[in-house]
Write a structure and sequence with these properties.
CATH superfamily of one domain: HAD superfamily/HAD-like
GO molecular function, one term: phosphatase activity
Cofactor: Mg(2+)
Number of strands: 9
Strand content: 5-15%
Pfam family, one: Put_Phosphatase
Keywords: Hydrolase, Magnesium, Metal-binding
Structural class: alpha/beta
CATH class of one domain: Alpha Beta
InterPro entries: HAD-like_sf (IPR036412), HAD_hydro_PyrdxlP_Pase-like (IPR006384), HAD_sf (IPR023214), Pase_PHOSPHO-typ (IPR016965)
Helix content: 25-40%
Number of helices: 10
């Protein structure tokens, strides 16, 4: 599913930054964070022994609803999830410099929206691709797979072992790259596809980074599964790999890449014969932490009207 609604900055610099959500934008796994906060850890672990993760978290939301837990309690847990001010500053600065920002996550639309809205960051993202979620007529949060893998649906068709059955981020990245290829600074699309920067940490982040080329950048979180996968076969990854360990690293590495890309674009324009000298890239000071903004105190039934809608992604 894709959620749009991010504000345009009108100064595109040819860079598309794609963020994972769990352990990248926030410093935890959002599913585990909610389950632990609501005292359901053991029950969730039991569900995981019998169900795929995406199905298990949906079933867990059903059990919590049945015992009287509300959607607002779930949202309150998410508002307390750890999000570094360095991440907020990186998002704000990258957007101000002209980057298009997107989220590509195996979390779900409700969890992602709750966090980004609370921290005032939702408007910086042009799209969110994640598992669909909505509040049904009974007030129960439903979480569905991005790629339906329940028969007779065929699933996403990717055979890479690191992709869960409900979502192949590589398939989504292929679509994003197709969209990127239609844009460029006045040049032919085939010659001047925009650059991608992909940030992630988990096994599911390995497939999308394999879709990137030498023109792009990968920012794996050092010491996490995707870093180990890259280290195990470095030649398989064509993109420029720039690791990060903590959120100060994330901010510094990301903004450094953006500066490189902007400078490279200016040099490319000069090589095209426009005769203008490349303007220096000036990085503004890191933005102060954004002020938190809480979600409405009551989330009504039918909340799906304000949640991102699903779009079909070819298998």
């Amino acid at each position: 599913m894709a959620a749009s609604g991010g504000v345009g900055n009108g100064n595109g610099n040819g860079v598309v930054v794609v963020f994972d959500f769990d352990k990248t934008i926030i410093d935890c796994d959002s599913d585990n964070w909610v389950v632990d906060a609501l005292g359901a850890t053991d029950r969730f672990d039991d569900l995981l022994r019998r169900l795929p993760w995406n199905s298990a978290i949906d079933a867990m939301m059903g059990e919590l609803h049945a015992e009287g837990r509300t959607v607002e309690e779930v949202a309150a847990c998410l508002r307390a999830a750890p999000l570094s001010p360095r991440v907020a500053a990186a998002v704000e600065t990258a957007h101000a410099l002209g980057c298009e920002l997107r989220v590509l996550s195996d979390a779900n639309a409700f969890f992602v929206a709750a966090v980004l809205e609370h921290h005032g960051l939702a408007g910086y993202f042009s799209a969110v691709d994640t598992n669909p979620a909505f509040v049904d007529g009974d007030g129960r949060l439903r979480i569905l797979p991005y790629h339906d893998f329940h028969a007779p649906a065929a699933g996403h068709g990717c055979h890479l072992a690191t992709c869960p059955p409900n979502m192949c981020k590589g398939k989504v990245m292929e679509r994003i790259i197709d969209e990127m290829s239609s844009c460029g600074r006045g040049a032919a699309p085939a010659a001047r596809r925009r650059r991608a920067v992909y940030l992630g940490d988990g096994r599911g982040d390995y497939c999308p980074l394999l879709k990137l080329t030498e023109r792009d950048y990968v920012m794996p979180r050092k010491g996490y599964p995707v870093w180990d996968l890259i280290a195990g076969d470095r030649a398989a990854v064509r993109a420029d790999v720039r690791e990060w360990a903590d959120f100060e690293d994330l901010e510094a590495v990301l903004l450094g890449i953006v500066a490189e890309c902007i400078t490279s674009e200016h040099h490319d324009d000069d090589d095209d014969g426009d005769g203008e000298a490349a303007a220096p890239v000036v990085m503004s000071p890191a933005a102060a932490p954004v002020e938190c903004r809480a979600l409405p105190s009551t989330l009504a039934s039918g909340q799906e009207a304000v949640l991102p809608k699903a779009v079909h992604v070819p298998n």
